[in-house]
Design a protein that fits this description.
Shape: globular
Number of domains: 1
CATH class: Alpha Beta
Order of helices and strands: EHEHEHEHHEHEEEHHEEEEEEHHH
Distance between the termini: 22 Å
Oligomer: single chain
Strand order of the largest sheet: 9-10-11-6-5-4-3-2-1-12-13-14
Length: 354
């Protein structure tokens, strides 16, 4: 499947649930994001039709996301179902890692090839400030369990934020020296917006050491304007790492995805930079996104989606849904238009399955 700009589209990101056990400040308000009702969520049977249709249309790579996919019912059955198609080359999963230690072995057994763990800080107290839930010790145990289970590669996704966690980029990079881990620094993407008027009144409070602290007493999430203030470019992060370790060496790993990848000399792992804001990666985009409620999106950062759920409930079958995949590919935009001021305004990141 090739879109009108010559890109091969073979990768589907599937949001299995919009629920999450964290409330990360750039992703979800403290009191949640207006979760999808059970009635509006695709049933397991409906999801299987969509996944089979995706394979029929030509998708060979699948990433299971959320929300937090480890909270999704029938997760292992979904993985096994996908693994039953000989055309499927790769199944991956993105998780916050909090439940991963107890599930890593079963994920591998069901058919997951590789895993991405979202982790924005190595400091337990700061973890509570950013994620507002959970325990960073359990996340690290999940990373260790993934390595032990043979999931490969194991990537750590770190959203870098100026004055919040950017003082840790060298510490994250150092992980790749001692462990076969692949750290990915992701530029903060201003996809967030204020829901129902809920926002921080004064989210950025200076602490004694000059770092910025997020007020935990106010419900909400960072607005797009606030996110822009906290953004730090991949080039800045790379320079800090090279100041500490010397010039990075070009590197690559299988299923490298959108990251531009480097390596510290002598390291076991790699360091990647996902610079969607400062240096967009749209020219190489090969993916569509399926939301929990059955809508198919051609782009993370542009509105517009196809309602597969209604089609299914009106009797559409695998061939019909496969044709819808092709239709959505035909209208996939060439790039995002953030520089022109366009922002998606209908869903949060957790609802899209970013």
């Amino acid at each position: 499947m090739v879109d009108r700009f010559g890109r091969e589209i073979n990768y589907l990101r599937v949001s299995l649930t919009d629920h999450c056990n964290f409330r990360c400040i750039y992703c979800m308000p403290e009191d949640g994001a207006g979760f999808c009702s059970k009635e509006d969520t695709l049933s397991f049977d409906e999801l299987r039709v969509v996944l089979e249709a995706a394979v029929t249309a030509g998708f060979t790579k699948f990433r299971l996301t959320g929300g937090e996919p480890l909270l999704a019912p029938r997760l292992l059955e979904t993985i096994s179902f996908l693994r039953g198609f000989k055309e499927v080359q790769d199944i991956s999963l993105t998780t916050n890692g909090h439940l991963l230690a107890e599930k890593a072995q079963s994920l591998k057994k069901a058919g997951v090839n590789r895993i991405n763990v979202s982790l924005d800080t190595l400091k337990p107290d700061r973890f509570q400030t950013i994620a507002r839930r959970g325990d960073s010790t359990l996340v690290w145990k999940g990373i260790e369990a993934s390595l032990g289970a043979g999931l490969d590669p194991v990537k750590i996704n770190c959203v870098a934020m100026k004055g919040i966690n950017d003082d840790e980029v060298v510490d994250f990079a150092r992980l790749t020296l001692a462990h076969p881990l692949h750290v990915r620094f992701i530029e903060l993407m201003p996809i967030a917006w204020n829901q129902d008027g809920v926002t921080f009144d004064d989210p950025l409070l200076k602490t004694g050491n000059g770092l910025i602290s997020i007020s935990r007493n106010k419900p909400g999430m960072l607005s797009a304007v606030e996110m822009k203030k906290l953004s730090i470019t991949a080039a800045e992060i790379q320079q800090r790492i090279e100041d500490a370790f010397g010039p990075l060496l070009p590197a690559s790993i299988p299923t490298n995805g959108p990251a531009r990848t480097w390596q510290i000399a002598g390291s076991q792992g790699t360091i990647g930079f996902i610079s969607q804001i400062s240096n967009d990666l749209c020219a190489d985009c090969n993916r569509l996104r399926l939301t929990t409620d059955g809508f198919l999106r051609p782009c993370l950062m542009s509105d517009g989606e196809a309602d597969l759920r209604s089609m299914l409930r009106q009797g559409a079958g695998v061939r019909d849904i496969a044709e819808s995949f092709r239709d959505v590919i035909s209208v996939k935009p060439e790039r995002h238009y953030l520089a022109e001021g366009q922002l998606p305004v209908t869903r949060t990141m957790s609802q899209i399955g970013g």
